[in-house]
Amino acid sequence: MTTQRYPVLRTKVDPRSEAYEANRKGNLAMLEKVGKALQQANAGGGEKYVARHIERGRLLPRQRIEMLLDRDSHFVEIGALAGHDIKGEATGAGLVGGVGVVSGTECVISASEATVKGGSVTPMGVTKSGRLMEVAEQNRMVGISLIESGGADLPNQDKIFVRGGEGFRDLTRRSKQRIPTICLVFGSSTAGGAYMPGMSDYVVMVKEQAQVYLAGPPLVKMATGEETDHEELGGAEMHSTISGVSDFLAENEVDAIRLGRQIVAHLEYDKPNVVPGLAGPVEAPRYDAEELLGIASADVRVGFDQREIIARIVDGSRFSEFKPLYGKTLVCGWAHVHGFPVGILANNGTLFSDSANKGAQFIQLCNQQNIPLVFLQNTTGFMVGKQYEQEGIIKNGAKLINAVSNSTVPAITIMTGASYGAGNYAMNGRAYQPRFLFTWPNHRIAVMGGKQLAGVLDIIQRDAADKKGEAVDEKKLTVMKMMIEGQVNEQSSPLYASARLWDDGIIDPRDTRTVLAISLSAAYCAPVAGTMEFGVFRH
């Protein structure tokens, strides 16, 4: 067993305490809500359309993915709750996608959900597909698309058409960068969807089932007067023997999946890095991951020590802390996760000038050593007030954001609690393009908390009335505050955020170590190299 020389973190958690039990119950309740939403995603278009799909002799998208993956290997879903409770969208956005292992190679896999609007691409489906492509490009991972789609969701064409072209652009760019894309066509792939196989590096089509054409028989007849059928116009055999759009003709769906695995195998797509620390079995954490449910506050207004989280997700619970006596509201240090070296930045409260400076320096050190970063977010943002402004909270906070923005080592973010204000930016939120970003079910994200925002607006309204010499309508102001607070609380919930792809998914805290390890392994598919080139730090 590989044992690092870092010191072991000592826990202070009492599983018998009232706070622990309250957190546990609260987190389990939130996980139950997430589970119900995931059930909606897994159900596709519902029993009627699923049954119709099966009656046609077709495999469901998750079955196709399962058969494609190596036996007993992992699959981390990306954007599983995209579109949840958004009008006109299905939970999952009509697409199943994530990271898995095919023929020993880590791949980004996406599969059309043909039971939802015939696999048509919705506005959120475009966004989700774009995110999956981004994961493939950032981490230089093979992309595999399992296609059965009717093309764009035409009633929403105005929300799809223009930005939908980015997907085809990115396909060709990945090919230029020698990042292969494999397209397995199981059914219809029409109109704009026809460009997906047309621009992929490898294409497999299923005999007497797959169809690829820019316009179907009815449109062709209307446009040109020509009469033709589906197979003659865009069938698998035609494209495999005449047009050359298809590289391989599969006898059936199982054969198509076999050919997909065969293509990946021949790529011999190895990682470019020798990963330090992976010489053998790794040390498991000394503390039970089950305890994470009782440690993480169900109420984000109540803080907790992130060292307790670190102790349950890193190898051997070993952590070498950087500047432990300075900038105490930001915990920084080195550890390993399943043998992968990581530099961890974790919030233990509001960000002050000293914690921001400490974080910026630590990011530079990790870049110097080519060590990936892990951010554990739980912050209300930067400290405000006259004293802190005079001490330079703006310029010091800018140093941390500068370091995050210009760092070139892979970074993975886990939202373990609050994510408010510029703290979201400084701790590598979505806008800063972490390789992966997952949230816990207790997570809240907004400019500020609902009560705080409503309070700010209350002050503004009172000041405005005072300047006009008018009396405050207390009843109207109270109603406004209640409405604003309710709106912000709803919009800052984890389900709301995940539905809009502000994250890659909500995970069970107990799975954090596994998700981190898979994310790190994916990140090592691309060269891991830090930089010492940063923007100007204001002093």
Give the arrangement of secondary structure elements.
Elements: H1 18-42, H2 47-55, H3 61-68, E1 75-77, E2 95-102, E3 105-112, H4 123-138, E4 142-149, H5 157-176, E5 181-190, H6 195-198, E6 202-206, E7 211-213, H7 217-224, H8 230-234, H9 236-243, E8 248-250, H10 253-267, H11 292-295, H12 306-310, E9 320-322, E10 330-337, E11 340-347, H13 353-368, E12 373-379, H14 386-390, H15 393-406, E13 411-420, H16 423-426, E14 436-439, E15 444-446, H17 450-468, H18 474-491, H19 494-499, H20 512-523
Describe what this molecule looks like in 3D:
The chain has 539 residues and is α/β, with parallel strands linked by helices. The chain folds into three domains: 44-267, 2-enoyl-CoA Hydratase, Chain A, domain 1, CATH 3.90.226.10; 289-447 and 493-523, 2-enoyl-CoA Hydratase, Chain A, domain 1 (Alpha-Beta Complex), CATH 3.90.226; 450-491, no CATH class. It has helices spanning 18-42, 47-55, 61-68, 123-138, 157-176, 195-198, 217-224, 230-234, 236-243, 253-267, 292-295, 306-310, 353-368, 386-390, 393-406, 423-426, 450-468, 474-491, 494-499, 512-523, and strands spanning 75-77, 95-102, 105-112, 142-149, 181-190, 202-206, 211-213, 248-250, 320-322, 330-337, 340-347, 373-379, 411-420, 436-439, 444-446. Helix 17 (450-468) runs antiparallel to helix 18 (474-491). The chain is globular and about 80 Å long. The two termini are 46 Å apart. The mean pLDDT is 92.
